[in-house]
Amino acid sequence: MRGDLSVPEARSEIAVVTGASGALGLALTAALARRGVVVAGIAAAPVAAEAEAVLHVVADVGDPAAVTRAFDEIRAQLGTPTIMINAAEVYPHRDILDETPASFMETVQINLGGAFNCCHAVLPDMVAAGKGRIINIVTFADIQPAPLAAGYSVSKGAMRILTKSLVADLGDRFPGIVINDWVPGTHTPRRGIPDGVDPLVAAEWGASLALLREPAINGIVFLQDREHLAARSFKRRVKERVLGKRRAMVRLG
């Protein structure tokens, strides 16, 4: 990663990772723990973790009351979370003609509602401390939705809007609370894709990103191991070059 970005002492950090029973979530908790971060993993079902010292908490992130209880337990056992990684998601493979209002909203409640519920749980402490780290794991599914994935595509696109809303509301007042979207890429073995990103590799990128706190990266979208640059017109690129506003792309170690 770039040397001019601040990285806090890992042992002063307490991270919460949702979706901790999935391949990526489980790998993220392990990667953070190996770096000396105190870690709690939230999953909808018990997790049998053997290697890393991680506090595993069972909770449905789509249920606000369950999230409140989970964070009460985490604070009691580990302390106040300083890093929040929203990785929990469901991906129903369902034709829109078979979708019902209940099934559609269940997907939205877990993917989008779960991220909001967890942000709601950690933000008061982060605001009080004047610092914190939130990463929402998203996709670009809303840009080109796949067939049979309406609930997933809508909810993941809405998560990106949630991140923008958090930055809009908090960025100026609390620059020490740094928030990003991260697109780790389709990982194996999801959907049986043979050439996806290995979750163990992606987790190392995610752990590096979680430990960056530089306010300058607030609101930046990261794609796999680097900053995702939005498309810019030729005129804008020339103007940035002339005015000296170009900056190096942020890359993760």
What is the element layout, followed by pairings?
Blueprint lengths: L13 E5 L4 H12 L3 E6 L10 E5 L5 H14 L5 E4 L14 H29 L2 E6 L12 H21 L6 E7 L15 H12 L10 E3 L2 E2 L6 H10 L10
Parallel strand pairs: 1-2, 1-4, 2-3, 4-5, 5-6, 6-7
Antiparallel strand pairs: 7-8
Helix pairs in contact: 1-5, 2-3, 3-4
Summary, kept brief:
The protein is an alpha/beta fold.
Report on this model:
There is one protein chain. By secondary structure, this protein is an alpha/beta fold. The protein is built from six helices and eight strands. It has one domain (10-243): 3-Layer(aba) Sandwich (Rossmann fold), CATH 3.40.50. It has helices spanning 23-34, 64-77, 101-129, 150-170, 199-210, 234-243, and strands at 14-18, 38-43, 54-58, 83-86, 132-137, 177-183, 221-223, 226-227. The chain has an eight-stranded mixed sheet with strand order 3-2-1-4-5-6-7-8, sandwiched between helices. It starts with 13 loop residues before the first strand and ends in a 10-residue tail after the last helix.
Which features would summarize this protein structure in a list?
single chain; 253 residues; Rossmann fold; 15% strand
